[in-house]
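Field log, afternoon session.

UNIT: design team B
ACTIVITY: writing a sequence onto a fixed backbone
BACKBONE:
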């Protein structure tokens, strides 16, 4: 079996020499990254959105780039050049930046979006493999996606060139992401329905609050603590002092051990006499993944959620994490 991580071995089956055809890609990526650090962004220099356009295979890559930009915090939309002349030019407005993908740089359908961009005074960024094309000449900035040849034996089917476009588009999106200071929290907010967004949820979005939180006072009798635990159904209760200051936790396990050791006498005790002091806690802004790690390490099923002063804000149970797909 050939090891595809072995360059020499890969060359044995790379009859069209694809490796050399895209060997200029690293330098192109560095240029795209640098350009991304310099481009005007939303909320800077009046640019509010990126309009991405392309035809054919370039159009498919343009759709992907538009989606990647939008999902990483740069407002973007895809404009189909053929539909532009039939009303979709109305999608473009002042404050946009037009990103055009055309490997040959002479795609006829691109003329309408480019003309509209010029009329509106929008900056134009072109991704092309023909730096002498008309499109490249009228652009404000050009991303070079030239490749030695396509993977197609006829050197016609867009393959290596579309790979270069995809890579440069991703580099551009990530450069803009870094410049914007886009965070994991921002990502989660834009991906609420996806598995990635769920994994990045915060404790505050999952924890139980208000009347759903089991709580007793330090002087509460054991019998009442048992009732509170049964009523709330979490297999535990928090113990709070004045001002909701967390002072301890009582679990089903604590009760079983107490009954084994003290028998009937256990029911005459108060919560402060057998509660677990200094229990495991977490802040509400922590990631759900952090909460799961604590639960697994401590071999417990619930965490008290407290603020910076140790005041109780909620409870997070292991079952609350099921929807995050962390398991």
């Amino acid at each position: 079996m050939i090891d595809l991580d072995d360059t020499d071995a890969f060359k044995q089956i790379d009859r069209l020499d694809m490796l050399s055809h895209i060997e200029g890609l690293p330098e192109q990526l560095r240029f795209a990254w640098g350009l991304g650090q310099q481009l005007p962004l939303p909320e800077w220099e009046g640019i509010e959105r990126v309009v991405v356009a392309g035809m054919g295979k370039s159009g498919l890559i343009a759709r992907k780039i538009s989606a990647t930009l939008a999902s990483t915090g740069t407002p973007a939309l895809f404009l189909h050049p053929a539909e532009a002349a039939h009303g979709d030019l109305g999608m473009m407005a002042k404050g946009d930046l037009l990103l055009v993908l055309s490997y040959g740089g002479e795609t006829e359908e691109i003329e309408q979006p480019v003309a509209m961009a010029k009329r509106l005074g929008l900056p134009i960024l072109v991704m092309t493999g023909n730096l002498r094309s008309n499109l490249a000449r009228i652009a404000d900035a050009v991303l070079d996606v030239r490749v030695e040849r396509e993977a197609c034996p006829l050197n016609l089917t867009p393959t290596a060139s579309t790979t270069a476009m995809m890579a440069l588009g991703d580099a551009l999106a990530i450069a803009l992401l870094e410049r914007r200071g886009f965070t994991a929290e921002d990502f989660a907010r834009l991906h609420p329905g996806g598995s990635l967004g769920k994994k990045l949820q915060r404790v505050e979005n999952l924890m139980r609050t208000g009347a759903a939180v089991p709580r007793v006072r330090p002087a509460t009798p054991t019998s009442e603590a048992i009732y509170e635990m049964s009523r709330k159904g979490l297999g535990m209760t928090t113990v709070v002092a004045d001002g909701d200051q967390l002072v301890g936790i009582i679990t089903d396990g604590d009760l079983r051990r107490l009954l084994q050791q003290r028998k009937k006498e256990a029911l005459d005790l108060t919560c402060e006499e057998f509660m677990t002091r200094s229990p495991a806690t977490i802040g509400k802004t922590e990631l759900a993944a952090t909460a799961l790690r604590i639960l697994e390490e401590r071999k417990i099923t619930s965490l008290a959620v407290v603020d910076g002063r140790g005041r109780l804000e909620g409870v997070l149970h292991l079952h609350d994490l099921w929807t995050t797909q962390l398991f």
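LOG NOTE: The domain at 7-182 is CATH 3.40.50.10490 (Rossmann fold).
NEXT ACTIVITY: expression trials, pending approval
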